[in-house]
Amino acid sequence: MNWKIEIVLYLLLLANALLALGVRNLLAAAVAATAFTFTVALLFLSMGAIDVGFTEAVVGAGIVGVYFIAAICQTTRKSRD
Amino acid sequence: MTNPSQSPIVIVVSRSLARVIQLFGIYVIIHGHYSPGGGFQGGALLAAGILLLRMTEGMEGSQVELPTALAMPTAALGALLFAVTGMAAWIGGGNFLEYAGLPIPGVEAVWLRHYGILVVEVGIGLAVTTALVSIFDDLVGKGDHG
Fold first, then answer.
1. Do the Cβ atoms of B55 and A62 come within 8 Å?
2. CA–CA separation, A67 and A57 (whole Å)
3. pLDDT value at position B143?
4. CB contact under 8 A, A63 and B132
5. Are A27 and A79 in contact (CB under 8 A)?
6. Contacting residues of B for A71, CB less than 8 Å apart
7. How does DSSP assign B9-36, residue by residue?
8. Residue A6 to chain B, least CA–CA distance (Å)
9. Residue A78: φ, ψ to 5°
10. Which residues neighbour B49 within 8 Å (Cβ) at sequence distance 6 or greater?
11. Residues B2-54 pLDDT 10s
12. Interface pTM (ipTM) of the complex?
């Protein structure tokens, strides 16, 4: 039953990555990148690496998302390229 | 980002939520010997609680939690705690971080290892918490080095 959950998680991972790369709004891109990190943490959990998944969830979803938003506040809101 | 939030709902919810996050962080640090987690994860959780208050209560309102000027000295103190505990094992003839060699008389080696790991985890937790908060303070431009 585990592989069904993993396939859903992999699809979610791809969707989050494409969303983070494609969206013009930088804040939305930061949120999509945070969701990507959290999906990676869930994948680590499903593989049985609880310690790695915990670290990934805390650092990636908890701290780095805040840093992204703090960095965006120092720049413009929209991507220009 | 460094101004206090205007909404009282955001302030009240983030105040109570930050305490829960920090309590869980302390739990993760203390139970780091025999369950997933440890100094780094618990320290990151403690920092997440402080960063939540930094964002909602503003930079001035959350100085009570961890003053900006105190962040880097506390990180150095945590690293010093880690290094001194590791090197104290040399006195008893052990290797670096070999807790059985800690120079405390009258305590069995099992308990020396138990409390040695705990002290090292607390040192790592202190260093990680304050270093992450200091990075955030520097990012939003209120750090002590410009």
1. no
2. 15
3. 55
4. yes
5. no
6. 139
7. HHHHHHHHHHHHHHHHHHHHHHTTTTSS
8. 22
9. -105, 150
10. B18, B19, B21, B22, B25
11. 788 889 999 999 999 999 999 999 999 999 888 888 899 999 999 999 999 99
12. 0.84
Q: How many residues make up chain B in this entry?
A: 146
Subunit contact B44:A63, Cβ cutoff 8 A: yes
Quote the CA–CA distance of B109 and B91 in Å, as a whole number.
14
Q: Does A1 touch chain B (CB under 8 A)?
A: no
Structure tokens at A33: 């990148």
From chain A, the residues in CB contact with B135 under 8 A are 67
| CB contact (8 A) between residue A66 and residue B51 | yes
The full length of chain A comes to 81
Question: CB contact, 8 Å: A8 with chain B?
Answer: no
Domain spans in chain B, listed from the N-terminal domain onward: 8-139
What's the token pair of residue B1?
Answer: 């980002």
Contact assessment for residue A63 and residue B55, using Cβ atoms and an 8 Å cutoff: no
